[in-house]
Amino acid sequence: MRLDNFFEIDSVAVIGASKNPKKVGHAILKNIVDRFKGKIYPINLNEDKIMGLKCYTDVLSVPNDIDLAIFVIPAKACLKVAEQCGKKNINKIVVITAGFKEIGIEGAKLEKELLAICKKYDIKALGPNVVGFIDVQNNLNASFTNEFPLEGNIALISQSGAIITSIIDWSIPENIGFSKVISLGNKMDLNEIDFLEILEHDQNTKVILAYLESIDEGRRFVEVAKKVIKKKPIIVLKAGISDAGSRAASSHTGALAGSVTAYYAAFNKSGVINVSSLGELFDYGLALSTQPPTEDNSVTIITNAGGAGIITTDTAEKNGLRLNSIDSEVTKTLRDFLPTAAAIHNPIDILGDAGADRYRYVIKTCLDNEYIKNLIVLMSPQAVTEFKETTDVIIEFYNEGVKKPVIIAYLGGKSNRTEVERLRKNGIPCYEFPEGAVRAIRGLFLYSQALKKKEEEIKTFDVDNEKVIRIFNKVLDDERLVLLEHEAMKVAEAYELPVPPTKLAKSPKEAIEKGKEMGLPVVLKISSPDITHKSDLGGIELNLKSNEEVRRAYNNIMHNISERMPNAKIYGITVQKMMNIEGKEIIIGSNNDPQFGHLIMCGFGGIYVNFLEDVAFRLNPISSQEAMEMLSETKVYKLLKGVRGEPPSDIESLIDSILRVSQLLRENQCINELDINPIIVYEKNEGVTVLDIKIALKRKQD
After folding, report:
1. CA-CA distance, 184 to 161, in Å (whole number)?
2. Who has the most CB within 10 Å: 46, 496, 570, 675?
3. What are the C-alpha distances in Å from 152 to residues 639, 653, 692?
4. Is 510 a residue whose pLDDT tops 80?
5. Residue 242: is its pLDDT beyond 90?
């Protein structure tokens, strides 16, 4: 079945329709009967008629074709009924019924069997455990919501049924309308990605909002979302944020990459706008459903209250927006017109006694100025405030064709409720507080940036990946998942990352010999897959300049580990050439997320990396531009550029190293975690050196 015709429905069967007003089967049937113009078939074993409609014992006894079947029956009965739907050539079902994988093992088994039947007959299934869906333009309420939403151009996808019923109830008095409302439930078959593909081509939908608790097909989500946002914005509220998983991670990167980090990286990669609250979801949605995107992050504020202007200014700065500088031509025009006490610079305070004529003049002046790109108009209720007349002015401007975003915020409530409704009915975004208006501009700017984002070519280097595969296979054959440092250094070397000479020694004598070969001074480090933080356990000795120092350091390290971690498996001690450490310590890392694959990270490295948390993430693979964007999001980037008279660091060589790591991850999906910490970045044109690297693999069956 083609997904794009999912909402093309002329006939519906409600399996489990009921006469009892307290039953869900009654609520769904009533919702459909109240509005739907197509054919409706109640399925009930014991009734002749419900709501004046002839009942049938099963779908097979219905003489006509059925486009959609809605299941409101016990979970165990769904298997038999799904078989009947298959034989009837019904290719769309909505399983309202709960009692599947959400209740445990038995329910999961039942859900798996139901999915197998759907696959057998090529049935597309929504659910189970859903509220249903609503196609507003086609007047089909295939759900048990207690209200029918207003018509609009916002599509809502939600993994929570309660969120859907609550939002619909809230949206009606707020005059916010929808095109489609979709409850995902357990996502046995159809999921959020399928509906993104469907809504991409839906002419009635201008913006897609989603409340999601999980995304199971991470890579597919990214690829589909990239395509959809070229036509319409996607705004996601990701719920269920927890860092419990990160506490079990063995690497720095794993610990810093909380469970939500991968989602944020995926949203960034695909151009999806991420929000943190339901209020923010609809602040963005309302603006993007009515306004053009803006390529400028500046804002000009018109207000009749100083306090409101200050709040808007502060909120704009927190949201990454800047106040536009008003040019001299505009300030002169405003000074000639406005009272002496008015503030003619941004925010433009036209005073508490401002009437509709004053608002008209200032708004028109700002609309006519080419340097003013985005406008926020604030109005608070005063004794002489003209809400109705000013609303008339704003609607008039919109009817004439406003070519730049104009966002309204009417503060208060009792005095202006009717005018807020009028504005929204006319497709003009109006907010109750300044914060919402600011977020609206931010959303328009973020979407513009997503539209401008171009796919860059992923750089590929000439490397020896066959050598890497041999190393990984040897480690796995040794029944290990963690590479020893000398093995990890060989992997880095195969990808032409600059590494110091590194050898494994199993005795003080051998350590001395290895040190002589590479030239003193050297560094000694414990070699154990069980030890992550070597320095914390006395497992590192630096700058060893003589044979005696090497011998003593070897024995000291072994003594420290035997006392502090006696059960660790020791392979020996790594001998490494002591390198110049006069540079900036940076970390490059990766964590393999189960949904989205490899995340790549960079930031401030060294022993304090977990405490400073000055890092940024991207979803691999990354381009040169993405690598630079990631690095520039960190505070250490300012240090790398040079501060307080210090020369700039070799950022170009660092970016090259990040891209080589990106390729290593791309070509070796078996890597579970990777830490290069630190990589020393020297002065410009002096290069970089990897001082320490850790690689952990996935089990072969993973």
Report:
1. 8
2. 675
3. 49, 52, 56
4. yes
5. no
